[in-house]
Design brief:
Helices cover 19% and strands 33% of the residues. By secondary structure, the protein is α+β, with helices and mostly antiparallel strands. Among the domains are: 63-84 and 431-694, Rossmann fold (3-Layer(aba) Sandwich); 92-252, Prolyl oligopeptidase, N-terminal domain (Methylamine Dehydrogenase, Chain H), CATH 2.130.10.
């Protein structure tokens, strides 16, 4: 052990001299796991204990090195000033209606958290209802789920602290704005489903002290809370003692006659059961008991439930099922059958169905009658993505967010009676959106698959291979990145940057088949798609490998870790953020076990052999890696920071070239949701300073 420590120290010292940076010497331990006869060393296992004093000292030392490096970048303060100025504009969310109230979030500019407002009717004066900025001096308390009682009297809301997934539920009286004494703790991955004078929610048992941010989450339960009572009196509505690794969520139908129970074993695939709430002591009746497909109940007509599902329809369809009739799928009625484009969602509006489709990762919207007959298209201008479509089955007005790569979201009001669109809110930003354009291209991946990619840049750009380029990707969990404005990217675009976003397999860009083409032992397709995107951008002279930065978050952090270890030459800069980087142990922490549908498990021989081939942590070799800035948060209980800690330690040990390999560990911050504006500006100022500096960019 002593010899190993001495050799490690000498090896790290050599790396320090090559890079010009003095990295902390990270202690190594003699820890080895055996997987099906293969021994895998894990010398930095001790960093998994994120609550230990030694880990805390290590974090402090690493941050000191990173901060010291970033402080030498001459234009860092100017980037921060410009980013703050761009960020400082009024932002609003899509309003949603309950009874006669309209609710929406507003941020005056650089408030740490957006503030919840309510107004009485369309023409009422907005009044502040809930301001999370008053709940913590550093702005690290955020609002998440909202649930308004059917009579419009109460608002139940969840708050998260320091970026953790753990939530608390609180209540207030909407009319008076007075906060009630109700408080519910240890809530996680929960919705709020009102019924009468109470609501349903999901929670875990209280974790043991000190393990809140890392212990495996098991035995999710459903409870009912009655307004005015303590949590200790909440009624246990559902639990599954046989399957500790299942999650459950419930929703009530609009008429509150049915409670719909969704079960899941991973991030895709749900079971469905229904309980009739107007029948005393009624049990949950199973509708679908496996996890082979996805289901979302959007409406009910009496005992008939309208469900969007990919059952027998990889690009989704809307079906109706009568829970009092035959339960089998052969009895389901097709309301909106599967089409060539992905059916992203269906909403009720004034007795009509509004269907949102995704065609090559851009939105198309159509109106159908309640029986599924198409009536007309809602015509949208340009390449866009519609988000947060909010409507009511008895109201002719709907609101939605219109998103592009070049301007902040515009909120539209839509009248379904006359098919008319009006702008409800358009932000005013200090960024010349009209100077930029977005195009969509299609390129060929390694196996011949055609992959879509959005490319945004200044109009009139010269394709000489010398433009700095920022390639961002995800590729997993049936998710996708469609047109959206990211405030921080504006700084890069203003300085001649090209911003590219490919639609990688593993995502949901084209439905479930596209998703399944990038999971488990097909995960390499995702990395190949991203590498092909980089090669396309170089071949078409948008950029060169010496002027390319690559970035991804969470599952996208895995993407960047895998790509940079497989192809260290692919880019000059790599930014893996809150990444899943240890693919052999990811399932042992918090909710990691739920990702097995996409990744597979190292407990399975075939899947282990696939995982170990691309797991970023286990594929760092002696090589010249890109300038790398790993970023994470010390309160990240989604992808625990140990992934990043162990990866950067290995990277610093193995780096042969002179490019810096650093880690930025945000304190009192989590996976990203609810991060205060001040922390976002700090983080992006550091990231863009690192990118600009290492791509040889100047700041104008």
């Amino acid at each position: 052990m002593l010899l190993l420590s001495v050799l490690a120290a000498c090896n790290n010292q050599e790396k320090k001299e090559q890079s010009g940076l003095s990295y902390p010497v990270t202690r190594k331990v003699d820890t080895t796991d055996t997987y099906f006869g293969t021994q895998i060393a894990d010398p930095y296992r001790w960093l998994e204990d994120d609550m230990s004093k030694e880990t805390a000292e290590w974090v402090k030392s690493q941050n000191a090195v990173t901060s010291g490096y970033l402080s030498t970048i001459p234009f860092k303060d100017k980037i921060r000033e410009r980013l703050t100025k761009i960020w400082n504009f009024e932002k609003r969310s899509t309003p949603f209606k309950k009874k006669n109230y309209y609710f929406f979030y507003k941020n005056d500019g650089i408030q740490n958290q957006s503030v919840l407002y309510v107004q009485d009717g369309q023409n009422g004066e907005p009044r502040l209802l809930l301001d999370p900025n008053t709940m913590a001096e550093d702005g690290t308390v955020s609002l998440a789920e909202l649930g308004v009682s059917k009579d419009g009297k109460y608002l139940a809301y969840t708050i998260n602290r320091a970026g953790s997934d753990w939530s608390e539920i609180h209540l207030l009286d909407i009319g008076t704005g007075k906060k009630l004494e109700d408080e519910i703790k240890w809530v996680k991955f929960s919705e709020i489903a009102w019924k009468g004078d109470g609501f349903y929610y999901s929670a875990y048992d209280a974790p043991k002290g000190g393990s809140e941010l890392s212990a495996k989450n098991e035995f999710h339960k459903i409870f009912y809370h009655k307004v005015g009572e303590s949590q200790s009196k909440d009624q246990l509505v559902y639990e599954d003692k046989k399957h500790p690794l299942r999650n459950f969520a419930v929703r009530t139908t609009e008429d509150q006659k049915f409670l719909v129970l969704y079960g899941s074993e991973s991030t895709s695939g749900t079971s469905i059961a229904v309980k009739e709430l107007d029948k005393p002591n009624a049990a949950f009746v199973p509708v679908v008991e496996n996890f082979d497909n996805n289901y979302t109940v959007i409406h009910n007509e009496g005992s008939e439930l309208y469900m969007v599902t990919d059952k027998d329809a990889p690009k989704y369809q809307l079906v109706a099922i009568d829970i009092h009739a035959k339960p089998g799928s052969e009895a389901w009625k097709k309301i909106i059958p599967e089409a060539d484009d992905l059916l992203e969602g269906v909403s009720l509006c004034n007795g009509k169905l509004v269907a949102r489709y995704l065609k090559d990762v851009t939105t198309r919207m159509y109106v159908f009658d309640i029986k599924g007959k198409k009536e007309h298209e809602i015509v949208l201008p340009g390449i866009c993505k519609v988000d947060a479509f909010d409507s009511d089955k008895d109201d002719s007005l709907a609101f939605f967010s219109y998103n592009t790569f070049t301007a902040p979201p515009v909120i539209y009001k839509y009248n379904i009676v006359n098919n008319k669109l009006d702008i409800w809110f358009k932000p005013q930003i200090d960024f010349k959106s009209d100077d930029y354009e977005t195009k969509q291209v299609f390129y060929t991946s390694k196996d011949g698959a055609k992959i879509p990619m959005f490319i945004t840049h200044k109009k009139g750009i010269v394709l000489d291979g010398n433009n700095p380029c920022f390639l961002f990707g995800y590729g997993g969990f049936n998710s996708y990145y469609s047109p959206e404005f990211r405030i921080d990217r504006a700084v890069f675009l203003e300085n001649g940057g090209v911003y590219a976003v490919p639609g990688l397999r593993g995502g949901g860009d084209y439905g479930e088949e596209w998703h399944k083409a990038g999971i488990k032992c097909k995960k390499q397709n995702v990395f190949d798609d991203f590498i092909a995107a980089a090669e396309f951008l170089v071949k078409e002279k948008y950029t060169s490998s010496a002027r390319l930065a690559i970035h991804g978050r969470s599952n996208g952090g895995l993407l960047i870790g895998a790509v940079m270890t497989q192809r260290p030459d692919i880019a000059k800069v790599a930014i893996p953020t809150v990444g899943v980087l240890d693919m052999l142990r990811y399932h042992k922490f918090t909710i990691g076990w739920a990702w097995a549908t996409d990744y597979g498990l190292s407990d399975n021989k075939e899947e282990f052999e696939c995982l170990v081939k691309y797991s970023p942590l286990h594929n760092v070799k002696e090589a010249e890696y890109p300038a790398t800035l790993v970023t994470t948060g010390d309160h990240d209980d989604r992808v625990v920071p140990a992934h990043s800690f162990k990866f950067i330690s290995t990277l610093q040990e193995k780096q042969k070239g002179s490019n810096p390999v650093l880690i930025r560990i945000d304190t009192n911050a989590g996976h990203g949701a609810g991060k205060p504006t001040s922390k976002q500006i700090e983080e992006y100022s550091d990231i863009w300073s690192f990118v600009f500096y290492n791509l040889g960019m100047s700041f104008q």
